[in-house]
Amino acid sequence: MAEWGIAFLSASISVLFDRMASPEVADFMLGRKQTEKLSRKLKTAMRSVNAVLADAEEKQLTDPLVKDWVDDLKDVLFDAEDILEEIATEALQRKLDAESSTTVEKALDCISNTFLDTFVNEVEPKMEEVLDRLEDLTKQKDCMGLKVGVGGKQHPEQVLTSYVSESDTFGRNEDKKKIIDLLLSSDESGNERCVIAIVGMGGIGKTTLAQLAYNDSRVEQAKFNLKIWFCVSEEFVVPNVMKSIIDQSATSSASYTEDPEKLQAILKENLTGKKFLLVLDDVWSEKSRHQEFLSQLLRYGTQGSKILVTTRNESVALAMKATATHHLKLLSNDDCWSLFEKHAFPDGSSNADPEIKDIGRQIVEKCKGLPLAIKAIGDLLWSESNVERWTNILKSNLWDLHMEGTDILPALRLSYKYLPSFLKRCFAYCSIFPKDYILKKGQLVLLWMAEGFLQQSEIETMEEVGNRYFDALVSRSLFQKSLGAYESGFVMHDLVHDLANFVTGQFGFMRLKGDNSKEIGRMTRYLSYFHGNFEKNIEEDLYKAKQLRTFLVISFEWKEIKMLRAQCLKVLSLSGRIRQLTELFDSIGKMKHLRYLHVSNSVIKELPNSICMLYNLQTLKLSIGRFERLPRDMWKLKHLRYLDVYNPSLKELPNSICMLCNLQTLKLSMCVELERLPRDMWKLINLRHLEFDYTCKLKEMPIQMGRLKCLQTLSKFIVNKHDNGSSNIGELGNLINLRGKLLIGQLQNVRSAKDALDARLKDKRLEELVLEWNPSKQVRGISESQRGVLENLQSHEKLKSLTIQSYDGRGFPDWIGHISLPSLCYLALKDCPEVDSFPEGRLPSNLKQIVIRRCEKLIANWKKGCDHLQILPSLEWLEIERGSENVESFPGRLLLPTTLTNLRIYNFGNLKSLDKEGFQHLTSLVHLEIFQSPKLKYMPEEGFPASLRFLIIWGCGSVFTQKLKRKEGDEWLKVARIPNIYVEGHHIQGVERFPDRFSPYEPRPYEYEY
Question: Domain NB-ARC spans what residues (predicted)?
Fold first, then answer.
C-alpha cells in the first residue's frame, strides 16, 4: 500500500545510510578505490529514489505500476542491507581472530590477507549488481512521472508511551443485558442447550461484548461448571478447538495426541454431565460439519449449556443453527464522541480548542460508529494541539479511497500513515504471527533488535528503545492487552493484523496447519510456521527463499533436517521435537549473520563449539535438555546481550561467559544441578538482569557481586558461611538499582547485624522480598542474633510482598508495620517456631493476604498475639497451617475481619470444632478450606454466613466426612445450603470443577517467556 510501503522504505534507506557510515564498513572500504566508488554511487542512487518516495506514496494506491516499482525497490534495499551486513560481519570476525591469535598465527597475516582479497572479490560484484538494479529503478521513476518533493507534509515524529485504560466501553449496556439474558434462558422450544450468535461488521465490538457478558457477575452466578474461550479466526480447525476445550476443562490432563478419535473420547469425558459455556470468537466457517460438531458438544453437556459465537456474517449464524442472533449496531453519535474524547483528550475535551473540537466531531462522523476506528484515530491525535494536523487528518483522501480485496478501515490506514517511520517496520513484522497470537513484549523487542529495527540511542539501551516502541504501538491501539484466561500479553485485532499483513505484502508469510495457499518466493524475507507438519513445505520454501531473514517454527516435530540454505538469516526460532539436533547446530554454526537463536523442546547431549562462531549473536535461548555445560568458547559471542538457558542437566557455566561485556540478561531456569556461578561474574559490567529460578543446589554467590552496578533484577542472593571465593551480604549494598523481586537465602550465615545493615535494603525499590534462614535446626543459628539481622534488613516503603521463612527469633521488628510498609499487600510467615505475636502496633493496613505456616506459638497465642487482625480494613485471604496442639476450636469470636473472603485452615491436629461465634460476622466469606484436621467433628452451631459459596474439606475425621458425603446428620444440615461442597476430593453438590485456589496477591516465580 502506497504510503505504507513508502515509510517502510524511508526507514530502510535511513538504516542503510547509518550502516554505510559505521566504523566497520567505513574501515573496510578505506583505501579500496573500486569499493569506495561503488559506495558513493549507491548513496547517490538512494538519495535519488528517496526524493520521490512522497509522490509514490500518493500514486501507489491507484497505480499498479508504481506498486510494483515500490516492491522492487524494497527488494533491492533488502539486498543492499545484506551486503553491508556481510562486510560488517567479516570485519568483526577478523577483529576477533586477531584478538585470539598467537604470535605464530600473526606471522601468517599474508595468508589472512589473501582470504580478505577473496572476500572483496566476492562482495564487489554483489555491490555492482545491486547498484545496477537501483540505478535502473531511478530511471523508471522518471518514466512513471514520479516527482521530487510532492506529497503530504511530514509532521514531527511523536512516540506516545501512555497506556489507554481498558474501561472504555460506551453504549453497550443494553446489548450486554440482552446477551446475558440469552445465556441464562432457554430457547422458544424450552431447550436450554443452544447456540447464540453475535453478528456485526469488523471493528464494531463483538469480541468486547462477548467478554463483557462472559465475565459478568450474573454469568458467574449461573453455576456453569466450565467456561471456555477459543478464538477461531478464518480456519475452523476442529482438533485445535477440541484441544483448547480439553486444556481449559481441567478435569483431565491436556492431551497432545493428534488422533481425532482419542481427542473425541477425552472431550466427551470432560464435558459429559457438565453445564458449560463455550465462546467461539470470530467464526467464518459455514460448513455443516462444524455445526454438527457444535451440536455434538451440546449433547455432551447438561441442560443450560450454551455456545456463544461471534461472527461478521449472518450466514455463519444460520449455518451454525443459532437459536438466537443478536445484531450489534453502530455506536450512537454521543457514544462515539464519548469514546473519542477518552482517547484524544488527556483531560477531557472541556478545555480543548473549540476549533479542534469541531474538527474532532467531523472526524468522528467519518469513523461511522465503529469503536475500533474511533480508538485508533483518537490515539493518533492524543494530546495533539496543532490545528493543521487535525485538519490534514480530516481531509485525507484515505477516508474515501476504495481498495479492492481489503476490508482495512480508513481510520487504521491513517493511523499507520502517521506512525513514525521507525515504528512501521516493527509493526509490519508482527504479520508473521497468527491472528490472536499472544505477543510478549520482551520477546518481540529481542526480535526487532535482531532485525535491526531499533534506533541507536546515547541515553537508552536497545532494550529500552524497544520497550518504548512497543508502548507507542499500544498507545495507538495497534496492540491491545490480551484478556485470555491463561496467558497475559498483547494481541492485534484481526483488522489490525490484516493491515500488518497488507503492509508486509510478499515479503512476509505465515503458515498455519492446513494452509498451503501462499506462494513463497525470492522476495520473502520473513517466514513462520505454526502448529502443523510442514516438513516437505519447509524444504521447498527454504530453497526458494534464499534471502530469508526471519524463520520461526512453532510446535512442530522434525524428523530430518534438510534446511538452512538461507545465509542471510538473522532470526531463527525452532520450537518442537527435533531428532537430529547435533546436525542442526553444525548447520547453524555457519550462519554468520544470525542475531537471534532459540531452540526448545528438544534434547542434545553436548552443545557443539560451532555455536560460538555466531559472532553477531545477540540473543541465545536454549530450552533443551541433557547437555551439562556450555561450550568453552562462549567468550567469542561479543555481541551477546541475552542468554537464557532452561535445562535440568546443566552443571557448569564456563568462566569465559564473564568476558561477554555486552551481556545484559542472564536467565537460568530449572538448572537444578547447577552448584555455582562463574567466579568472575563481576566483570559483566553491563549485566542488568540475573535470574536463576529452581536452582536448589546453588550454594553461594561469586566474589565482588557489588561491582555489578547496572544490576536491576537479582532473583536470589545466597549468603555463604565463609567469605573465601564468595560474596557476603554487604555486597548487596552497592547494587543500588535493584528492584522487583529478591530472595536472600542462608541468612544464618550473616556474621553480624551490622553486615545485614550494609545490604541497605531500605534504599532499594524492591516489590517482593523473601528472607530465608536454613530450615535445618542444626544450622539455623542463635535466636538473638537472628532478631538483630532481621531488624537491619528493613525494606523500602514501596514493598508489596514480604515472606519470612525458617526464622528462629522470638519476635518481629517494628518495621513490619503500617508506618514502615504502607504498601504491603502480602505477608507470609513460615517455620517461625519461636514467634508468639505480630509486631507491636498495627500491621500494614493495606494487607490483603496473610499466610502463617508452622508457627505454633503464634497460633497458640492467637487471641492475644493476633488480636488486631480484626481491624485490618483490606484483608481478604488468610491461610493458617499447623495449629498448636492446644487449639481445639477456631477461629474465636470477632478475631477475624469482616472483609475476609478466603479462609484456609490446614493441619490442626487437635481441632474438634469450628467456633460457633467465629464465623457469623464474616459476611464477605466466599471460600473456606479445612485440610488434615483428623479430629474435626463439628461445624459452627450458628452455621456459616450466607455469603459462603465454596466449602472444601479434606483429610478430616472419617465418621464426620462420611456423613457429609451421604448428606445426613446434624452437621450436614449446618452446611447443606452452601452452593458448592467438596469432601475428600468428591464433589458433593454445586459445580464440579474445583475452584481456582491461587491468590491474586501471592508472589509467583519469574515468568519464563517463550
Answer: 174-347
